[in-house]
Structure formats: structure tokens, C-alpha cells
Amino acid sequence: MPFPVHKFKVRVYYEDTDAGGIVYYANYLKFLERARTEWLRSFGIEQHSLLEQSVGFVVKRVEMDNIAAARFDDLLQVNTQIIELKRASMLFQQQITNSNNLSLVSAKIRVACVDLQKMKPIAIPAFIVGEISSVI
């Protein structure tokens, strides 16, 4: 059974755009990051509490296709779904669409769980795996 899709809305601000009024490509990565943070929060998991335990998620790999441009003041939706859950990493499929449901960005992002003191991979904490597994 597939993991459910988490939906997160984000408004394009002037600071997100380039001189032509379209979203600068690197800012899509920020929108994707915010959506993954809110995805975690939807499980009651706050990253600051993970940091206190020296646990963090770091981006290991990004595959991103820019399909169409977003513009200043657009309201976007970021859809986030896990497509692979491993012992120490997760692979996310994320898509950014505009208010007309036009696909703007498609990305696959692998994040690894690490011990922030040692900067070494560790198993995703059991309570996180349990929360994620409870929705499938």
C-alpha cells in the first residue's frame, strides 16, 4: 500500500523571484524543504526535538525537473510522498503545482538520517518509523 500524499501550500513572495518576476530555480528547493518539514510535523515530530537528540535528516540526493515557471504572488501546492523507506534513509517524491493544478516542478529527494555529532548515518529512530508506518 502506498504512503499517503501530504499537501502544503506556499505563496510566492517577491524575494522568491528573479528580475523577471519568476521564481528563481533554487528557491523551489526551499519550498520542497518546507514541505518535508511540515510533513514531519504532521506526525507530531518537531525537528528541534530531533536536534536536541543529535538526530538530523540531511539531503543526500536531488533529482529535480523544472517544467514550468511560477510567478510572484502565485499560490502553490507542494505534494510530498515517501516512495521508499529504508533503515537510514527515505526517498521522497515531491511535486509543485500552481492553482490551476499545472505541474511546475517534479523532484525525487533522498534524505539520510545522521548522528549530527559524528556526522555518520544512523537508523531512523523507531518512533519516527512507527509514526510513518501507522498511516499505510
What would you say this structure looks like, in words?
- This protein has a single domain (6-133), classed as Hotdog Thioesterase (Thiol Ester Dehydrase, Chain A, Roll), CATH 3.10.129.10.
- The chain has helices at 25-41, 47-52, 126-133; strands at 6-11, 55-66, 75-85, 89-97, 103-115, 120-121.
- 21% of the residues are buried.
- The termini are close together.
- By secondary structure, the protein is α+β, with helices and mostly antiparallel strands.
- Strand 4 and strand 5 (103-115) form a beta hairpin.
Second-tier CATH architecture: Roll
CATH superfamily: Hotdog Thioesterase
CATH T-level topology: Thiol Ester Dehydrase, Chain A
How many domains is the backbone divided into? Answer: 1
